Amino acid sequence: MSASITLHCQTTRGFSACATSLITDSLTVEEARQVGAAHGWRYLNGRDYCAGCSGRRVNPRVVVDVNGAGHATDDARVRADLRLQTAERTLLALVNQAASGDWLYRPATQHNDPGSGGEERVMARHVCVASTGPAVAPKSLANAVYIATVDPEVGRAVTAVLHEAFETVHHEHGLVQDSLTQAVVDLADVILRPKGER
């Protein structure tokens, strides 16, 4: 046995009425109105109005999970706005703990430790923030240049992008509506991917 609640638009104009309805799988009227709100419906003065009659944009949606009834168990199904918010907080905490100042890589400056043969290092205010390996290894140089490029100021800019995307997706009830926002959600997922100790 299954139950559902259908919302009917109650707009009337003269001798005609709007025929729009929204079938939901909600068990209560309140849940059905939450689903309706996600689709642009409005409830006002004891009456339901469809998106077209209430002057709202119609947002096509496939699933609106009101009570977590879908029992999403994997991270891929967690609401996108929550993933963006978590990634923003995670990255901001890491940025705030990092050495301040411009991170520089100067190829002419080699640090020769006894027996090491020199290492590629990234410096911030004369403090080594990263050592990427032997100076003779090509990957050490590439890693040092990359780390210097992605310094805390870049991290702060990325957190601002994550925050803007969070605001947009949160306003859309956790759903992503365009490819640019999806790209930021993908960035958040990469930030949240387990990488061992950070």
Summarize the SSE layout with pairings.
Elements: E1 5-8, E2 12-13, E3 16-17, E4 21-24, H1 29-38, E5 42-44, E6 47-49, H2 51-54, H3 80-97, E7 103-104, E8 119-124, E9 127-134, H4 138-149, H5 152-171, H6 179-192
Antiparallel strand pairs: 1-4, 2-3, 5-6, 7-8, 8-9
Q: What do you see in this structure?
A:
- This protein is of the alpha+beta class and about 200 residues long.
- The chain has three domains: about 5-55, no CATH class; about 75-100 and about 150-198; about 100-150, no CATH class.
- The protein contains six helices and nine strands.
- It has helices at about 30-40, 50-55, 80-95, 140-150, 150-170, 180-190; strands at about 5-10, 10-15, 15, 20-25, 40-45, 45-50, 105, 120-125, 125-135.
- A three-stranded antiparallel sheet has the order 7-8-9. Strands 1-4 form a two-stranded antiparallel sheet. A two-stranded antiparallel ribbon has the order 2-3.
- Helix 3 (about 80-95) runs antiparallel to helix 5 and helix 5 crosses helix 6 (about 180-190).
- The longest helix is centred in the C-terminal third of the chain and has 20 residues, at about 150-170.
- The chain starts with a strand and ends in a 6-residue tail after the last helix.
- Residues about 60-65, about 70-75 and about 110-115 have low confidence and may be disordered.
